[in-house]
TrEMBL record:
This is ABC transporter ATP-binding protein. InterPro entries: AAA+_ATPase (IPR003593), ABC_transporter-like_ATP-bd (IPR003439), ABC_transporter-like_CS (IPR017871), BCAA_Transport_ATP-bd_LivF (IPR052156), P-loop_NTPase (IPR027417). Residues 5-237 form the ABC transporter domain. Pfam families: ABC_tran (PF00005). Belongs to the ABC transporter superfamily. It comes from Dongia rigui. GO terms for molecular function: ATP binding.
Amino acid sequence: MSVLLSLENVTTGYGAQNVLHGVSLEIAEGGLTAIIGPNGHGKTTLLRAISGLMPLRSGSISLGGRSLAGLRPDEIVAAGIVHVPQGDMLFPEMTVIENLLMGAYLPAAAAEAPRRLERVFALLPKLKDRRGQIASTLSGGERRMVGIGRGLMAGGRLLMLDEPSLGLAPIVIDQIYEVVAELAGAGQSILVVEENAARVADKAALIALLDNGELVWSGAGAELMARPEILETYLGA
């Protein structure tokens, strides 16, 4: 498969502290790629760097061969990268459908909003039932689904999900990952950050392990699950 997103020697951080140290990674077009690793070791920072929320201190990021250097976050969205952040991050006093439509604020996405809305409702039928409900009254799992649906409304080439399972009950996590697997199977390129390797081992085409801001291992899910020394050393499994 062709390379969609390329990171070369990416370094960034907060204040005087670097969090990422020369991360290089290639993400293929189509399917699911997972970034795993312990909490506080740079996974969220990596997504923030890709989406332009954190300036690079060195290195480069390109999408489909186009450099993202110097682009604002909204320009990166327009280029095709959609970031669904950790937690709910909804507009709490807006309805479900109003939150979803906020994902289609760019002109190109707005033109496709009716068709994309039907797709979101087909993937996440509970949202259709809740479309007039105020976001703050939803359950945790429903809010997470709205966040993913809002990301899909933007129509990006790459959908980035930051720990979509965070704080949810196991049965809801299974539902979320069923949707993620369905999207990936239909050809949507997805980059997901996940702390629990078992949740993505059988779904991701590539798993990359980030530890202390460095890429220390990458490979297929089956290979990772067959390496207990990696799981024990880096993930406490």
